[in-house]
Every structure is written in C-alpha cells, then in structure tokens.
Amino acid sequence: MLSKEDQRRFEQITRQLRESDPQFFARLEDRARARRGRYLMLLTIVLWASLPAMTVLAGRMAGAICALVLLANAGFMWRFRRRWL
Q1: Which of 2, 35, 39, 76 could be joined to 7 by an S-S link, Cβ 3.0–4.6 Å?
Q2: How much is the pTM?
C-alpha cells in the first residue's frame, strides 16, 4: 500500500508517461484486455466441463440453472468477442 504522497507521485508519473507515449499505454491496455479474455475463456471452459458433475451431484434443477447461466455467458462473450480477444 502506498502512502498518499507516494500515490500522488505515482499518478503524476503515470500521467506524464501517458501523455508522452500514448502508444505504449495502448499496448499495455491491449495486453491486459487479452489476459482478462483468456482467463474468462478458461473459466467458461472449466464451468462447462463441470456441468455434468454438478447436474449429478446437485440435481437436475441446479444443472439446468447452471446451463442457462453458461449459455447467457457464451452469448455475452460472443456478442462482445472483440473485447476479449
């Protein structure tokens, strides 16, 4: 955790770097976005793989609810696929 003064200085340095080299910050943002997309995709795959086990262990209703949530997630990821890639 940074102190208030250190946080202020860090923000000032970042602001100056952002103004002096905007392409560098754009590349960093693209890498972070791609990383989040990979983690979200991995989480989705793991949840889809666990769906049969959840259905057996928790019952059909829980499996159906989980499947509906995962279908909504897949639709959401498909709709905004440019953001995740």
Answers
A1: 2
A2: 0.50
Measured CA to CA, the distance from residue 81 to residue 44 in angstroms comes to 14
Instruction: Encode the chain (85 residues) as per-residue pLDDT tens digits.
Output: 778 998 899 889 888 888 888 888 777 777 777 777 778 788 888 888 888 988 899 899 988 888 898 888 888 888 877 665 5
Long-range contacts of 4-9 (CB under 8 A, 24+ apart): none
Ordered alpha helix ranges (H), 1-85: 4-20, 22-58, 60-79, 81-84
Alpha carbons 54 and 49: distance in angstroms, whole number: 10
Spatial contact of 40 and 77, defined as CB atoms under 8 Å apart: yes
Q: Could you tell me the two tokens for 80?
A: 């905004």
Enumerate residues 6+ apart whose C-beta is below 8 A from 52: 63
